[in-house]
Amino acid sequence: MLGDRLASAVRRMPASWHGHYFEVVDSTQDEARAAVHVGAPDCSVFVADSQRAGRGRQGRTWLAAPGSALLLSIVFREYGQLAARPWRFTSLASVGLVHAIERWRPEQSVAIKWPNDVMLGDSKVAGILAETSFDGRELVAIVGIGVNVSGAPGIQGAAALGDGVDRGDLLLALIEEIDALRVRPHEELNQAWAARLWRRRQRVHLLDVNGDEEVVVVGVDSDGLLRVKGADGQERTTATGELLG
Q1: Which residue of 114, 144, 216, 228 is 20 to 30 Å from 31, comparing CA positions?
Q2: DSSP per-residue codes, 115-165
Q3: pTM value?
Q4: Phi, psi of 209 (to 5 degrees)
Q5: Which residues in the chain land under pLDDT 70?
Q6: First vs last Cα of the chain: how many Å apart?
C-alpha cells in the first residue's frame, strides 16, 4: 500500500504519545529496546514501513515488504499494583487491535488466538509479542505488533486485511483503542480479552510439553495463563502451549 498515510499518522498521534517513524529497520522491537536504555518515556511508539529481521513467538520471523504491513513497537511504563501484572500489556494490545480491525471488518469474526495472534476467522492476520522487565518499582513493557494489511501472507494459513485499509488510519485507531482500554480496571480488560478468545468453549488441539491433546478452551486467568478442559473433564492452565485448529 505504497503512498498511504502511515508516516503522517505518526506525526498526528495524540500528544501523550511519542512517535518515531522509520522507512526500514531490522526490527521495531530492536529500536524500542535501544530507546528504553536511554530513557524512552511511556507511550513511545516506533513504526516502520518495512523490517528485515522481525521476530515472533518461539523464534519465528516476521518479515514485511514496504507498504504491506503495519509494524510497530510500543513502550509502556507502569508503577504500583499494575506493575506486577506484565501480561496486561499483551491483552491490552490484543483487545485494542481487535477493536480497531472491526472498524473496517465488522462483518468478519475477529478473535484472539492465545497467547498473541489476532485472527480473521481461522486465519492469522496479526501477531503480538511483549517483552517485560521489572526492577521492583517500575515495569517496562515493549509490545511489538505486526498486522498484515495488504501484502501476500508469508505464513501458511495467514490472511491480509485487504483493500480499503490505510495503515495510518489503522495505527491511529489502534492508539485510540489502547488509550480507552488502558484506563479500565485490570479485571475488565481481562474479561474483554477472555471474551474474544479464538475457539472459546470449542474443542481444539493443544500442543504442549506433554504432546498433542484435544482440549476445550475455557478462558484465561488474571496472569494470562490459558485455561483448558482436558478429555478427563479436569480444568488446568498452561503458559507454554500452542493452540491448533
Answers
A1: 114
A2: TTEEEETTEEEEEEEEEEEE-SSEEEEEEEEEEE-SSPPSSTTB----TT-
A3: 0.91
A4: -60, -25
A5: 1-3, 54-63, 81-84, 151-157, 245
A6: 31
